[in-house]
Amino acid sequence: MDAAEAAGPVPEADDQGFPARRAPRCSGLGELDALVTRCRACPRLVAWREEVAEVKRAAFQDQEYWGRPVPGFGPADATVAVVGLAPAAHGGNRTGRMFTGDAAGDFLFAALHTVGLASQPSSVDADDGLTLRGVRLTSPVHCAPPANKPTPAERDTCRSWLSAELDLLSPGLRAVVVLGGFGWQALLPVLAGAGWQMPRPRPVFGHGARVVLPATERRQELHLLGSYHPSQRNTFTGRLTMPMLVDVLREAAALGGLPVSPEVP
Question: Closest Cα partner for 73 from 26, 106, 33, 42?
Answer without folding.
Answer: 33
